[in-house]
Design a protein that fits this description.
This protein is 32% helix and 21% strand. The protein is an alpha/beta fold. The chain has three domains: 3-76, Beta Barrel (Elongation Factor Tu (Ef-tu), domain 3), CATH 2.40.30; 79-355, Rossmann fold (3-Layer(aba) Sandwich); 366-454, no CATH class. It is elongated, with a radius of gyration of 25 Å. This is V-type ATP synthase beta chain. It holds the Pfam family ATP-synt_ab_N.
Length: 464
């Protein structure tokens, strides 16, 4: 039963306090109506005895302590869902902003979701092809995985996200349905336009659902945007049997919005001013990825976060690393060399990669090639360090080959065009071409039979 109250006790930033409340519950949706007919939405974020603290999505401007009508709806936040959401664009709280009208459906789903019973989870298998060699070859994305991208301010993570949306697929020989849910939090208008225009021009927008929370939208809305996006993803995956890739950018904006609202509530801050429940809130989002036993669909996540001051020990990337199954790290030094995408492969990893590649999934030599490329590129770092001390001319012939290999690896394997979509075979062949620059006896991470089958010496150029 909906209950209506007149007047507010307190207004503090995006929060209002209502007293003498009966029968309210945490996360309950609230409707506000002002004297001028303006309506706003909020949700209860704290209850103390007969007081309720309510977050207002549209901000508290023009709200009066005396004449504001507050109506408790008796249900948590819900959104209408159907397969018609594909190809549509919504704001941060799930309202259409593409001028195509509301979603008409009998299906209303609670955006807070329900935690998956670990027993009902199925172990992630099969890979999702992104067309990007550094990801597909060395940090393979597996269906049902959560694999974040750690970036920094000014690095091309937006361009990389758009490229993944355009190129991502389940492979060439499958008839399974695939779609993408894209959620942007706190992005500038020109960035949102870049995503929208890129998806339209590339012809992929018909299987993309977009949720856009702009920088000038209310901070509180930012907290609900990823939950709305993941609710849509779960519906398409578990009700419609589709394989869904969810891209969330930027998780740092989400965490900073949480810090701002927490400060308004007067909560005691934890590390760097973030609330103590930052870990559990991030886990609540990330753990909504997975595969349910007996179901056809899957939810795979690529959260993107910008590390403040490029600090990988900052609370946001630090806690994200605990929860997720690996990370893809973008590097400012590679970006400075005009290498795109500037993925630093050494600190990047995919913990589930080993179970979704190889014979029956990609190609039998995939794991060996990845291991050998990692090993050789690590030795490149040693050769470069030595060259900086004694000079490149004084290096041994083998170390000079490693320097050439390192430059070729960065420019030809990691680096690729923003419109270049490589198959997994292209990626593996490129890996073998680079490994051919080194003597066969140096390739000690590859099975002998595979080495004999695929290894071909490559003519080493004097300069790369």
């Amino acid at each position: 039963m909906a209950i209506e109250y007149l007047g507010l006790s307190e207004v503090n930033g995006p929060l209002v306090v209502l007293e003498d409340v009966k029968g309210a519950f945490f996360d309950e949706m609230v409707e506000f109506r002002m004297d001028d007919g303006t309506r706003k939405l909020g949700r209860i974020v704290e209850i103390y005895e007969d007081k309720a603290v309510i977050q207002v999505f549209e901000g508290t401007e023009s709200m009066s302590l005396i004449n504001t009508h507050t109506k408790l709806t008796g249900h948590p936040m819900e959104i209408n869902l159907s397969s018609d959401i594909l190809g549509r664009t919504f704001n941060g709280i799930g309202q259409p902003i593409d001028g195509l009208g509301p979603i008409i459906s009998d299906t209303k789903v609670n955006v807070n979701g329900l935690p998956l019973n670990p027993v009902t989870r199925e172990y992630p298998r099969n890979y999702i092809r992104t067309g990007i060699s550094a990801i597909d070859g060395l940090t393979t994305l597996i269906r049902g995985q959560k694999l974040p991208i750690f970036s920094g301010n000014g690095l091309p993570h937006d361009q990389l996200a758009a490229q993944i949306v355009q190129q991502a697929s389940l492979g060439d020989d499958t008839d399974e349905q695939f779609a993408i849910v894209f959620a942007a939090m706190g992005v500038k208008y020109d960035v949102a336009e870049f995503f929208r225009r890129t998806f339209e021009e590339s012809g992929v927008s018909d299987h993309v659902v977009m949720y856009l929370n702009l920088a000038n939208d209310p901070v509180v809305e930012r907290l609900i945007t990823p939950k709305v996006a993941l609710t849509a993803a779960e519906y398409l995956a578990f009700e419609r049997g589709m394989h869904i890739l969810v891209i969330l950018t930027d998780i740092t904006s989400f965490a900073e919005a949480m810090r701002e609202v927490s400060s308004s509530k007067g909560e005691i801050p934890s590390r760097k001013g973030y609330p103590g429940y930052l870990y559990s809130e991030l886990a609540t989002l990330y753990e909504r990825a997975g595969i349910v036993k007996g179901g056809k669909g899957s939810v795979t996540q690529i959260p993107i976060l910008t590390m403040p001051n490029d600090d990988i020990t900052h609370p946001i990337p630090d806690l994200t690393g605990y929860i997720t199954e690996g990370q893809i790290v973008l590097d400012r030094q590679l970006h400075g060399q005009a290498i795109y995408p500037p993925i630093n492969v050494l600190p990047s990893l995919s913990r589930l990669m080993k179970d979704g590649i190889g014979e029956g999934y990609t190609r039998v030599d995939h794991q060996d090639v990845a291991n050998q490329l990692f090993s050789c590129y690590a030795k490149v770092g040693d050769a470069r360090a030595l060259a900086s001390v004694i000079g490149e001319d004084e290096l041994s012939p083998l170390d000079k080959k490693y320097l050439l290999f390192g430059n070729a690896f960065e420019h030809e394997f990691v680096g690729q065009g923003p419109l270049e979509n490589r198959t997994i075979i292209d990626t593996l062949e490129k890996g073998w071409e680079l490994l051919g620059m080194l003597p066969k006896e140096e390739l000690d991470r590859i099975d002998t039979k595979i080495l004999d089958k695929y290894y071909k010496p490559t003519e080493v150029k004097a300069e790369v």
